[in-house]
Amino acid sequence: MGGYKEYKVGVTMFLVVFGTTLLMTIGIGGVYLGAVPATKLALEKQVNYGSSAWSVRDPLMKGWNQPKIEKRGEMVSNPIGVGKKIFIREGCWHCHTLLPEQSMDWEYFGAPPLAGDFVGESPTVIGSDRKAPDLMHIGSRMPSVPWHLQHHKDPRSVQSKSIMQSFDFLDTGELKALAAYMVSLK
Asked: I need a surface site. Which of 49, 69, 116, 178 has the fewest CB within 10 A?
C-alpha cells in the first residue's frame, strides 16, 4: 500500500506544477494583452479578417456557422479572413513567422508590429521559431496572386530548393483565399 501513496503524491505534484505553468503561460499572458489598447491595425484586421479562432461550432476551421445575408441566405465570406483560417488550420505558422527580426527591411517595409496590433486575435500566429521566410510583409514583396497560387500548389516549381510541402490537396477556392491572405500582408 505504501507505493500507492507515493504514486498519488507524485501525480498530485505533477498536476500542481503543470497547472501552475499553464496558468502562468496562458493566464498571465492574456492579462497583459488584455490591458494593451487595440491599435488602428488591430481594428482593421478584425473587420477584414473576422474571427480566426478555433471554436466548438467550427472545430475544423472550415467556416461553418458563418453569419448569413438575411434576404438571400448566402454566407458572408471574406477571402482574406478565410485565407487566415487556412493559414492557421494547415499549420503554416509553425514554420513561417509574422514578426520580422530587426533588419534593414524595417526601413523599406515598415516597423515591426506592436503588441496592440494583435488585440482580438487568437492565435496571434506571430510565431517564434522560424524555419521558413517571415511573411509579415509578403504582400509588399510579392503582390502577385498567380505567383502565390503556383507557389502553394507546387513550391519547388517556383523555388527549386523549397522545403515547403505542396498544398495541392486544397480546393481552388481555398488556394485563392490563402493567396488573398498572403497578398494582404503588407
From this structure: 69
